[in-house]
Known about the structure:
A: alpha/beta, five-stranded mixed beta sheet, B: four-stranded mixed beta sheet, 18 strands, globular
Amino acid sequence: xxxxxxxxxxxxxxxxxxxxxxxxxxxxxxxxxxxxxxxxxxxxxxxxxxxxxxxxxxxxxxxxxxxxxxxxxxxxxxxxxxxxxxxxxxxxxxxxxxxxxxxxxxxxxxxxxxxxxxxxxxxxxxxxxxxxxxxxxxxxxxxxxxxxxxxxxxxxxxxxxxxxx
Amino acid sequence: xxxxxxxxxxxxxxxxxxxxxxxxxxxxxxxxxxxxxxxxxxxxxxxxxxxxxxxxxxxxxxxxxxxxxxxxxxxxxxxxxxxxxxxxxxxxxxxxxxxxxxxxxxxxxxxxxxxxxxxxxxxxxxxxxxxxxxxxxxxxxxxxxxxxxxxxxxxxxxxxxxxxxxxxxxxxxxxxxxxxxxxxxxxxxxxxxxxxxxxxxxxxxxxxxxxxxxxxxxxxxxxxxxxxxxxxxxxxxxxxxxxxxxxxxxxxxxxxxxxxxxxxxxxxxxxxxxxxxxxxxxxxxxxxxxxxxxxxxxxxxxxxxxxxxxxxxxxxxxxxxxxxxxxxxxxxxxxxxxxxxxxxxxxxxxxxxxxxxxxxxxxxxxxxxxxxxxxxxxxxxxxxxxxxxxxxxxxxxxxxxxxxxxxxxxxxxxxxxxxxxxxxxxxxxxxxxxxxxxxxxxxxxxxxxxxxxxxxxxxxxxxxxxxxxxxxxxxxxxxxxxxxxxxxxxxxxxxxxxxxxxxxxxxx
Lengths: 165, 508
């Protein structure tokens, strides 16, 4: 295989499962750990599950341009991220590609990532953001009690979604 | 060198311009310009919330966890912190010299990290500024504009990023949160399948990197005096160099040169950094201001990163990058190149060097060896110094008898570049600010100057929905004279004088 080929490689085990879940966040910053923690629990839950082969899991500190390549060829991608504001315990929103990119830092917003995918590959990805409400994002802070409950609720929702054929 | 930035004869007459926070810059930052009564820029202050809390965060933790823990410092260059911590921990386990396999696996990981970081910076953050100019509409002066106008360039940027990420994955086990480097060595070598995977594309990577250097070289030449003058300030340069003077990113002696290229110190042991550098605290900034001790705080500030490294080295030991360096050096006419925009040129020369160095390593049989770990007489203190993508990175730990961290000191490259960025901003403002009206053009140019340094701090918290951009003009007494804000959707809003900050749409 070529790493410089943007087309998905059907021969790479797991790399092109129809569904992809990306857990975004920094485990060291309080409720910012929601994304990676939910992904870890999902990984544990899927161990031995028949639908495990249908789902690829990917950790990410931040969304970056190359994640557009990870979205390529998926039936659906779900980005799990902590939300500093919004409805608790979580919201799930279909991402509309951004016509102009968000003014960002080194990272991309989900909409900007979808927009980049659309422009690079000619189609909008099927992308959902699962935004799990957090409260505390200080360095070294543990997961807050609210975030713990929100994470569990979000995991239930996501697990049910992934088992829906 | 810093005196004009820091003093004002009549500070009560100064007015203030704020840019807050910066786009495409990690961390929450703002810029304050202080003007005198003649509308001349007297001071420039870049405010970034520095990550000092991290040093406290790791106190009390066992040192052997540090190469993994410190990756949480930064979502952009975790591998640099991983390797700097591992180098410091090598000292703690008494193994400053690694096995050939361990050192080469680490170097490969580092080259992959620098390659992917430089690719992200140039292709996705800076190329819009360089290709379209700072006055281009914000809706176009971004990666979308690059995809529209230069689709092949954008595609290569994404794929070079992925290649670098795969180098990291192969060496560290994962694209992020990897654990390849451990105190005294590495926990695994490459296998032949990994090596073949990377080797299959490296020739193409080198060609693309060389094309990028040629593109930037052409842009710099076409930019003429405007490129050379933009945000240009004479600065000292600090970097690691190899014992023979070659460009060195992983391990070497410290070299500092003055703006004329004369040596301040050379091949100084990195373990002596605390004698060579000191840090100053200023009341208006959370960031520290490192300086070369022998020169003092006023004259001793310095620049780190690609521009400093390529200026400082005597040569690059890979042929295509060395050819590019010679052309670069000629632009300085015998002195270090001081143009801030030349940082992008230097960055791409380094990207090319990394690609060539990866190719060389992939042909080295040591990469698949089985001698992974060394150990020796343990020590209570360890210092690890590495050239991260943005510049020299220092990790310094002290531990107790149980191996728990009692003290940590980190100097990250953005801290080292603190004063150099202030000087660059001041130069831009002096050249561009006209009267009392804030313009999008000024805002853009300040960002372009800062972006050349690619500052990156406090970047790991990113919860959804942040990062607007505002440019504020106030008197020294706090009265808002003008406020220009660019929102996340690219829309521009202005608060007219006397509005108390109420915004109106200036341009959707």
